[in-house]
């Protein structure tokens, strides 16, 4: 992909609305890369560090002011970059993050309506020079995502939101995919797991080469 972080490792983020299926595929990507001799670090946001996991617990279960929510997402991210992402990339590892800054634009921006300029200011503060080398955006229609969520788990604060919230999140994700076509690859996640894996192997094969 076109981003060139000035470090030896590679950074891949996984995105999509809740229920889109990204979690199903992260393990496959980790195994694929390991089979090609890469050292993989798999992590997540919010979370991924001791402080970040405490913030995740607050973020997923407590109601709070929208700006507090955005600031805590970026606080978790700052810690994640400092403790996990930057050191991993400096070692030459492949860092996989279950969500990164696109999620803040999609959820706090698209879903909740926070001014995009504020999110851009936070992004420029917290990681002015770091972007994923590749972002895999798992995309499905809302009804498919909702059916998957209802079938699999107890819902957290975000997952309890209504269809118009997820529709706005999905639209913002797709808008960003159009804005950053060299970084964000949209994965049609309505297909079978096998078909999606084949597509992922093709995309990753280019990055590994
Ligand atoms: P998710 O990644 O879906 O984890 P799980 O599969 O364990 O439920 O949950 C994280 C939630 O946090 C998800 O609903 C999206 C939300 N989120 C934001 O609203 N903004 C952000 O910046 C990030 C990273 C996540």
TrEMBL record:
Its EC number is 2.7.4.9. It catalyses: dTMP + ATP = dTDP + ADP. GO terms for biological process: dTDP biosynthetic process; dTTP biosynthetic process; dUDP biosynthetic process. Residues 14-197 form the Thymidylate kinase-like domain. InterPro entries: P-loop_NTPase (IPR027417), Thymidylate_kin-like_dom (IPR039430), Thymidylate_kinase (IPR018094). One of its GO terms (molecular function) is dTMP kinase activity. The keyword Cytoplasm does not apply. ATP binds at residues 16-23. GO terms for cellular component: cytosol. Keywords: ATP-binding, Kinase, Nucleotide biosynthesis, Nucleotide-binding, Transferase. It is an enzyme of class 2 (transferase). SUPFAM superfamilies: P-loop containing nucleoside triphosphate hydrolases. Phosphorylation of dTMP to form dTDP in both de novo and salvage pathways of dTTP synthesis. Belongs to the thymidylate kinase family. HAMAP family: Thymidylate_kinase. This is Thymidylate kinase. It comes from Massilia polaris. The lineage of its organism: Bacteria, Pseudomonadati, Pseudomonadota, Betaproteobacteria, Burkholderiales.
């Amino acid at each position: 992909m076109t981003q060139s972080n000035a470090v030896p490792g590679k950074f891949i983020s996984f995105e999509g609305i809740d229920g889109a299926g990204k979690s199903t595929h992260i393990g496959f990507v980790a195994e694929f890369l390991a089979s090609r001799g890469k050292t993989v670090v798999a992590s997540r946001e919010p979370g991924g560090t001791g402080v970040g996991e405490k913030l995740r617990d607050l973020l997923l279960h407590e109601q709070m002011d929208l700006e507090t929510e955005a600031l805590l997402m970026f606080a978790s991210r700052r810690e994640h970059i400092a403790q996990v992402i930057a050191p991993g990339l400096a070692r030459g590892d492949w860092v996989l993050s279950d969500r990164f800054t696109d999620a803040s634009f999609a959820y706090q921006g698209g879903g909740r309506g926070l001014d995009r300029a504020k999110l851009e200011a936070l992004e420029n503060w917290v990681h002015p020079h770091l972007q994923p080398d590749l972002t895999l955006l798992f995309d499905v229609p809302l009804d498919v995502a909702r059916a998957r969520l209802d079938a699999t788990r107890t819902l957290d604060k975000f997952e309890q939101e209504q269809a118009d919230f997820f529709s706005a999140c999905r639209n913002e994700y797709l808008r960003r995919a159009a804005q950053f076509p060299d970084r964000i690859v949209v994965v049609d996640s309505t297909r079978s797991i096998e078909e999606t894996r084949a597509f992922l192997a093709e995309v990753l094969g280019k990055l590994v080469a």
